[in-house]
From TrEMBL:
Name of the encoding gene: ehhadh
Residues in the signal sequence: none
Entry-linked Gene3D superfamilies: 1.10.1040.50, 2-enoyl-CoA Hydratase, Chain A, domain 1, NAD(P)-binding Rossmann-like Domain
Catalytic reaction equation(s): (3E,5Z)-tetradecadienoyl-CoA = (2E,5Z)-tetradecadienoyl-CoA; (3S)-hydroxyhexadecanoyl-CoA + NAD(+) = 3-oxohexadecanoyl-CoA + NADH + H(+); (3E)-hexenoyl-CoA = (2E)-hexenoyl-CoA; (2S,3S)-3-hydroxy-2-methylbutanoyl-CoA = (2E)-2-methylbut-2-enoyl-CoA + H2O
Listed name of the protein: Peroxisomal bifunctional enzyme
Gene Ontology BP annotations: fatty acid beta-oxidation
Record pathway: Lipid metabolism; fatty acid beta-oxidation
CDD domains in alphabetical order: crotonase-like
Species per Swiss-Prot/TrEMBL record: Gouania willdenowi
Annotated InterPro entries: 3-OHacyl-CoA_DH_CS, 3-OHacyl-CoA_DH_NAD-bd, 3HC_DH_C, 6-PGluconate_DH-like_C_sf, ClpP/crotonase-like_dom_sf, Enoyl-CoA_hyd/isom_CS, Enoyl-CoA_hydra/iso, NAD(P)-bd_dom_sf
Length: 719
């Protein structure tokens, strides 16, 4: 809806009304058409202001309506009518002007923004382009280079940057609507052609071809197969090279392809999934809207290795005071310096002053006594963590929430070492912890809903996408990674090279394939865990690590290369070779080829040609099958939880939605059939055997992803 009122006799005020973000639903568009007509028809009205209810201008087109039948007046003629208006129209921008919201503002003759407003054209993040003439107006207003930046990245700008770029005419920290009303009154009757952006020529650039070539290369490099950024460059190119009307046609054409694409569907699903994970629930029935988080102001981080340092930075940047504890004096000094540097760099990037004085460094636990919440981030060793938890239980005030940053250790076991297991939760951060957006909040059997609510809220305040998951080995993310990695190892045994496997998965859209990723994070990490699990241990009789363990196929290739001291980038050699220890550029290593040949010969394995399709199916479908298993067990509450974890923690390409969304797109029946096919060929690999939930979904006709919850409920109630 939109409301019309007349202010001071001669200014028409149009207020968009569609909380919370005044998205341009059919009713809002109809309201705008009606109220603009009214303003034009009323002779007393000499100028118009458009604003949004509740100090929010407009969050753009209604994303929810994209999947249904489009009704109501179309956006483009509506905003053209505004630009063509014979009475000046002023946009009063408060809160946000995003996507169609900014495009609406660009059709107005003047834009006045509050200092705290954010503006942008984030359509690309939804698999679209600014197709309400934004791709044609913005370059005409601010030039090609700046427009390309905003349109291809979708980044939001502050009002100050918008003013500097020329997107808005004036910024105020007063009541924006009042300022706009006064201004509108002052420009009544003035000529408007010079204010109509569609009439502007696109500002010329030195070498347009080179500029677009460079932009295209940049987006192709970073887009990893995403089509919207490419279309955005093409649309801006049309603005730079064609008359406005033809540019608009090109924009429409490009949008038509994007609008119905699977990528747009995936990215829009991902947008809502990120919000859905905030509405967490626990198997007990406790959920986000019925539980009050505990108040948290003072925090502590125990252990200042790489993870601990990142967590201190994230907490400090979110405004918490932090007691940073590291028992080794030298490590404490180094950590302090590293943390200060990270804070300075972060503050510079965000254009703010760094916060240092909210951190207290300590080599003892004493200052932790009066904090509200502790995050333990010591080495991933249960015995060490138990010791820390016992110390914390002795020192902390009653009611302190104890969190452990572990990537997979048993939360229940750790909780059992404290007198208040209900106050223990896992907080699985991803490295670097101050950068990576994902946080897995892991509840144990006894974790109280308030503890979970508190950890989830803390994550939100740190700017994380937090997902609440149940406790099991590896939680959701790392648990699903295991069958994926196993398939990668098996494929090496059967004839593939690390390059072949990585290339197939990188072409799918991962930033790095499993072997390059493993070189980066350190191959020895998994080796140590496998040794602790008793897997990477030679058989006393043969002296070799068995290739069958607990009745299942096991590949020791990763263990064997670790035995050679090849731990990945840090040692300069791993699955690839690097020019030096710590080097970043992975090169295929002839040593690896020889090693694999010898390994296969030793075990009588006849190498065969492996197709990239097989790599994708085996790695991805095994991972997806494990995802269904976590849903079946209730470890993940919903497919959105898994998808958000994979997109934000494991670099699953966002334009493919996440593993569970991808499974829905591929078709559950196909996934099940292919898993069965591979399981027949590898009966000693149980993770290739389709799990019950997947079978059940296929049996009832493969319902779409939003209907899986119902099936899951039934299945869980039958267990
Ligand atoms: C052939 C058709 C032609 C169409 C022309 C196409 C040209 C225009 C395209 C567009 O405009 S696409 C939309 C562009 N806008 C955006 O991408 C903005 C998306 N929203 C956000 O980034 C954030 O929501 C926000 C606006 C910055 C607010 O963030 P905040 O953290 O304060 O709140 P949220 O929890 O994110 O949102 C609250 C609530 O509102 C829902 N919502 C937000 N934006 C939209 C929207 N544009 N359409 C529909 N719904 C929206 C959001 O989903 C939340 O609701 P729940 O999911 O929690 O129910």
């Amino acid at each position: 809806m939109a409301q019309f009122s007349r202010v001071s006799g001669s200014v028409g005020l149009i207020t968009l009304q569609n909380p919370p973000v005044n998205a341009l639903s059919a009713a809002v568009r109809q309201g705008i058409v009606d109220t603009v007509n009214k303003a034009l028809q009323e002779p007393e009205v000499k100028s118009v202001v458009i604003c949004g209810q509740n100090k929010v201008f407009c969050g753009g087109a209604d994303i929810k309506s994209f999947r249904g039948v489009m009704t109501g007046p179309p956006l483009i003629p509506m905003i053209h009518a505004i630009e063509a208006s014979t009475k000046p129209v002023v946009a009063a921008i408060e809160g946000i002007a995003l996507g169609g919201g900014l495009e609406l503002a660009l059709a107005c003759h003047y834009r006045i923004s509050h200092t705290k407003a954010r503006l942008g054209l984030p359509e690309v993040t939804l698999g679209l382009l600014p197709a309400a003439a934004g791709s044609q107006r913005l370059p005409r207003l601010i030039g090609i280079t700046a427009a390309l930046d905003l349109i291809t990245t979708g980044r939001h700008v502050t009002a100050a940057e918008a003013l500097q770029l020329g997107i808005v005419d004036h910024v105020t920290d007063q009541n924006t609507v009042d300022v706009a009303l006064k201004f509108a009154s002052s420009v009544a009757g003035k000529p408007l052609d010079a204010r109509r952006i569609s009439l502007y020529p696109c500002p010329p650039s030195d070498d347009t071809d080179a500029l677009f070539e460079e932009a295209m290369q940049r987006v192709r490099r970073s887009a990893r197969g995403a089509i919207a950024p490419v279309a955005c460059v093409q649309a801006v190119r049309a603005a730079a090279t064609l008359p406005y009307a033809q540019g608009l046609e090109r924009e429409k054409e490009l949008m038509a392809t994007l609008f119905t694409s699977g990528q747009a569907r995936a990215l829009q699903y991902s947008f809502f999934a990120q919000r859905a994970v905030g509405r967490w629930s626990m198997p007990s029935g406790a959920q986000w809207d019925t539980v009050e988080p505990l108040p948290v102001q003072k925090t502590a981080v125990i252990g200042l290795g790489t993870m601990g340092r990142g967590i201190v930075v994230a907490l400090t940047q979110a405004g918490f005071s932090v007691v940073a504890v590291e028992t080794h004096e030298k490590q404490l000094t180094q950590a302090k310096q590293a943390i200060e540097e990270m804070l300075i760099r972060g503050a510079k990037r965000r254009g703010v002053t760094p916060e240092h004085d909210t951190i207290t460094y300590s080599h003892s636990m004493e200052p932790v006594a009066n904090v509200d919440l502790v995050i333990e981030a010591v080495f991933e060793d249960m015995v060490l963590k138990e010791k820390v938890f016992q110390q914390l239980s002795a020192v902390c005030k009653p009611g302190t929430l104890l969190c452990t940053n572990t990537s997979g250790l048993d939360i229940d076991h750790l909780a059992s070492k404290t007198p208040n297991p209900e106050l223990v939760v896992g907080m699985h951060f991803f490295a670097p912890a101050h950068v990576m957006k994902l946080l897995e909040v892991v509840y144990g059997r006894q974790s109280s809903p308030r503890a979970v609510a508190t950890a989830m809220q803390l994550g939100k305040k740190m700017g994380k996408v937090s997902v609440a998951v149940g406790n099991c080995l590896g939680f959701v993310g790392n648990r699903m990674l295991k069958p994926y990695m196993n398939q990668a190892f098996f494929l090496l045994e059967e004839g593939a090279s690390p390059e072949l496997v990585d290339q197939a998965l990188e072409e799918f859209g991962f930033i790095m394939g499993p072997f390059r990723m493993s070189d980066l994070s350190g191959i020895d990490v998994g080796w140590r865990i496998r040794k602790e699990e008793g897997l990477a241990v030679p058989d006393q009789r043969t002296g070799q690590i068995p290739r069958m363990q607990k009745g299942c196929r096991y590949s020791p290739v990763g263990d064997l290369i670790c035995e050679q001291g090849r731990f990945g980038q840090k040692t300069g050699q791993g699955w690839y070779r690097y020019d030096k220890p710590g080097g970043r550029v992975a090169r295929p290593d002839p040593w690896m080829q020889t090693f694999l040949n010898q390994y296969r010969a030793t075990h009588g394995l006849v190498p065969r040609r492996i197709d990239p399709k097989e790599v994708l199916e085996r790695c991805l479908y095994a991972l997806i099958n494990e995802g269904f298993q976590t849903l079946e067990e209730g470890i993940a509450a919903a497919p959105e939880d898994i998808d958000v974890i994979y997109v934000f923690g494991y670099s699953w390409p966002q334009h493919r939605g996440g593993p569970m969304f991808y499974a829905d797109m591929v078709g559950l029946e196909k996934i099940m059939d292919r898993l069965e096919h591979y399981h027949q060929a590898h009966p000693d690999v149980p993770s290739l055997q389709p799990c019950n939930l997947l079978r059940k979904l296929v049996a009832i006709g493969s319902p779409p992803i939003h209907k899986w919850s119902q099936v899951m409920k039934t299945l869980r109630s039958q267990l």
